Amino acid sequence: MNSFDYNEFDNRVKKAKLLMINNDLDIIVITSQHNFRYFTGLDSHFWESPTRPWFLLLSQKNPPIAVVPSIGKTSIRKTWIKNIKTWESPNPNDEGLSLLKDTIISIKSGKSRIGFEMGLESHLRMPINDFNNLKKSLPEYSFVDASPIIWKLRMIKSNNEISKMKEVISLASDVFDELPQLIKIGQSEIEICKIVKKRMFDLGADHIAYMSCASGQGGYDQIICNPTNKKVSEGDILVIDSGATLDGYFCDFDRNFGFGKISDSSNLAYEIIWEAAAEGMNKAKPGNTCADVCNAMLKILNKNMPKNNDIGRMGHGIGLQLTEPPSIMIKDETILEENMVIAIEPCLEYAPGTMIVQEENILITKNGFERLTTRTPKKIPIIS
């Protein structure tokens, strides 16, 4: 189970209830892995099995109610949740739907507003046919999007969450800082990433839920794919983007490494991106918007090397998921608040099909920001 004490989760539910009252929402039904963990503390990779849905019901006046398949009863009992209802599963003819409906009615019958995870960066982890049938069977109830309430809570991290994130970001930073002494020309992307993963586990990471890698002459053409058997050679730049976790909380930042002699243009692009990241971090403080941060970085990039970047955003929130709201992009007017944890991620495609990306993780503080990663070197580390 999660290492937080029960008060952490009780406080989250209390805050959710206040938001529900303010938004005239009677019930929220949680179905997805990370939101379920956020409110219960349940830590399980059983969610990788899609056979069974899981439900958690939050309401204005009642304690949370878990409606879960029978296989999960013992695990839920180990959390702070006391009200647990189960059904025998798998049961394709009625996968908890009748029990869920009865539980909703027991909380509040008649006209009510029920929130589900239907909006921004959310999803329903239940069959859509079941969801539609639930709506048909409860014609007096209004089904609405609860994701704004959930993200309003999750974007602001508690001290316990911040502590976990600082720890995992610190250990990943240590690994990247020592990596130039552990790798060499001629190794494959897979070999290098295995070194990174082993060192992260050695230092205390629980899982490496995400690790992308790419390399090429002077840069790379994407930043999302798994490492390959390609061997790094003279003039290559390699990027590794890490998503290690500790108690479910992510770090998400990358580091670049040059091999042998790299081109002047790639050196210049790297230094421009470093300056853009610095401007973005300096702009990241309470009261400014995500768009303000994005525009500060774009100003540096476009001034020095105007090119078309189509990444879509240059940063995002981090937490129980690798990427969370808000997005650092020109159309996101989310106002930054104290205790948000943000990835600052400028990107520059400085030649056709050749890009360089840098990423740092920061905490929004009362008056500005605290950088959680050790800073990307101003000059790209060279592996000879």
Report on this structure:
With 384 residues, the chain is of the alpha+beta class. The protein has two domains: 6-154, Creatinase/prolidase N-terminal domain (Creatine Amidinohydrolase, Chain A, domain 1, 3-Layer(aba) Sandwich), CATH 3.40.350.10; 159-383, Alpha-Beta Complex (Creatine Amidinohydrolase). It is built from ten helices and 18 strands. Strands 4-3-2-1-5-6 form a six-stranded mixed beta sheet. Strands 7, 8, 9, 10 and 18 form a five-stranded mixed beta sheet that branches. A five-stranded antiparallel beta sheet has the order 12-11-13-16-17, with helices on one face. Helix 9 packs antiparallel against helix 10. The longest helix has 20 residues, at 159-178. The protein is elongated.
- Provide the domain count: 2
The CATH architecture classification of the largest domain is: Alpha-Beta Complex
Beta fraction of the residues?
15-25%
Instruction: Describe the global form.
Output: elongated
- The third-level CATH topology of the largest domain is Creatine Amidinohydrolase
Tell me the structural class. alpha+beta
Task: List the total number of helices.
Answer: 10
Share in helix = 25-40%
CATH superfamily of the largest domain: Creatinase/methionine aminopeptidase superfamily
Number of DSSP E strands: 18
Order of helices and strands: HEHEEHEHEHEHHHEEEEHHEEEEEEEE
Layout of SSEs?
Layout: H1 6-22, E1 27-30, H2 33-40, E2 55-59, E3 65-69, H3 73-77, E4 83-87, H4 97-107, E5 112-116, H5 128-137, E6 141-145, H6 147-154, H7 159-178, H8 189-203, E7 207-217, E8 236-246, E9 249-250, E10 253-259, H9 264-283, H10 290-304, E11 315-317, E12 324-327, E13 341-344, E14 347-351, E15 354-357, E16 360-364, E17 369-371, E18 382-383
Parallel strand pairs: 1-5, 3-4, 5-6, 10-18
Antiparallel strand pairs: 1-2, 2-3, 7-8, 8-9, 8-10, 11-12, 11-13, 13-16, 14-15, 16-17
Helix pairs in contact: 7-8, 9-10
